[in-house]
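When time allows, look over one protein, given below as sequence and tokens. The question is which stretches look regular and which look disordered:
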Amino acid sequence: MARVALVETKKGRTDFRREFDGEFDFDQYQLCSDPTIKKVLKRDCDIEINIDNYDWIILVGSDALKYFTKINSVTEYSGKKVDEKFLPVINPAMLTFKPEARKTWETSKESIINHIKGLVEDVIIDESIAFGVEDTEVCNAFIQAAIDHEGTYIALDSETTGLYPRDGYILGISLCYDGVKAAYINTECFDAVTESLLQELFTKKTVIFHNAKFDMAFFEYHFNFKFPSFEDTMLLHYLIDENPGGHGLKPLSIKYTPYGDYEKPMYEWMDTYRKENGILKADFQWACIPFDVMKTYAAMDALCTFILFEKFVKIKQNAKLKLVYDNLLIPGTRFLTDMQDNGVPFDRSRLTQSQELMQVQIDESIKTLYQNPQISKFEKLNGKDFNPNSTVQLRSLLFDYLGLSPTGKKTIKGANSTDAEVLGELAAQSEVPGLILNIRQRSKIKNTYLDKIIPQLDRDSRLRTGFHLSFTTSGRLTSSGKLNMQQLPRDNPIVKGCIKANEGYKIVAMDLTTAEVYVAAILAQDKALMDVFRSGGNFHSTIAKTVFKLACEVEDVASLFPTQRQAAKAVTFGIMYGAGPKKISEQVTKDSGTYFSQYEAKEVIDDYFQSFHQLKKWLQLQQDFIVQNGFIYSCFGRKRRLPNVKSSDAGVKSHSIRSGLNFLVQSAASDINLLGAIDMHSYLKASKSKARIFALVHDSILAEVPYNEVDTYCDQLQHYVQMDRGISIPGAPVGCDFEVGDDYSMGKYEKQYGIL
């Protein structure tokens, strides 16, 4: 009988013998014996266990896993063998408030029981399934065998020296054509025949990638390879589980293939190499890994990709999800690959001048701060210089010395917050918070944006950053990498002003207007709300006039009844996401500058639903469906799984319902924008236009367009965005606002800083 130990973080109430159905016996340990410690750190661990006395050790939760193996994610490894004897598993205690983890627990439990009973055979990874190729003849013969193979698919992966094609090159490629064995081929053995054979292979077969956008960009840039037909296991898994994270090849291979953490030996080699050579992790170069060390890991990437595809492709049996994959995700991948390659156009000279200007303003702001008599007195009182970056000093200055009234916002530890929002509110009580906020904002602009953008520009002064299809539950695009295009400063035009069109071009920004409400009106089939769109007047003013029955023309609402307009606007956006009177009250008060009570907010909500009663009925129907089924589909076929509606925690359940309602309108609006951009990109390529879409930011499409093509571009883009895709109001297509300028700030940069 196997000798088993179970390790948890602290002594809890969970009866693990019952949880494991009494299938085996074990000794039970805790990392920390002190029950008063809430967050157990390594220094708190006092466990006494001789691991050599046991055949298997079950590690419950991430703390135990990290303590023994240095692995952080227990979810990835739950139920899988780590090293020779460790069996990590999620804590079943979490199931009460995270019922979506039930499946993970059940499959992990079954796997652990099978391991302990000796029912799981170790899989050996050797040359029979994963091998390296450095000889040209052998390479070409393998590719020819792949071409001649009767199968339809070929799994393809690349190992590169950088994250962007212009920053590195391809070290080698991995190929698997039968789901049984895979080869890692050194690109140094490529000749003209090799490249010709590869293009033939990629033309005849459907290529399976894991993160196609990454690999295709490298292959197209360095070899000009084309991929007429491809699949993406990362996107297929996104259809299976739309929650962000967990779509990487490593966690999926651990979860769905018998090969586990096959890359571990290579990373152990890397750690040893770095220590021996004094190289920081951030400075390690992928090219330092010898071919013999990398070949197995790299080949396994292709083999596991093939296996994952065979498992995940079944999701396309769901007709709705197949439409999402075929009409949005795959075309979106092709589009984003090209869009990323287009790059964001920056003016290098303006960046440098802006950098210098911002530093001057920071220095002036710091000088002004330290000249403030309150700061001088505070320094004398404390006997040391004031450091505005010290939250302890800042909190003491604002609330103890200056005696400012706290806003009520707290940190995680319960102290009065000193974040940007708080400083902005406190500025009404004293000039000191405003001065500090000014320094913070300008320093962030310079350090986070201007200083980092300049060294990352390519030779053509364009910046290639990342845009992603599978990072949100709603399907909205995200941006990350060299620059997050969706988090550029809003209140200061200096960064947007540096995104500047080349000579002879203009920056054209198209923005969807009230798209989410537009979608809601259609889905709810609320005639009154659709009539608001048909009226053609200012949307929020029209809503306010309708709800409050204002005795004025629509165009006069903003000037005569600003608070009512803000209230109508807050309710319009808020009710889509389940906002109640408290939230509406706070939002209107903030936006209008006039106190708006919860009682008034409730009346507005009631009046709103009285005017648009079909919308209220629809929202209730969707809510009931979510509660009953635990999922919801968007009008374009996306699925949002919401298992937490079964949670016993009322807050968790309520948040899950709101997420579902949010998803319905947000995903549809986002998809309207994405589909319009995809079609427009195809049009530009077919017409050989020099206009280039370079970013999608929230509900905006940004492009650099020759000045003599601007009108045509705008007309064509509006056509594609407003195309009837089964979700439109007859006579009132979704709104498109266009701005045209020399830079992305649309003239605000020059207005504030002059011509640089």
Observations:
- The mean pLDDT is 92.
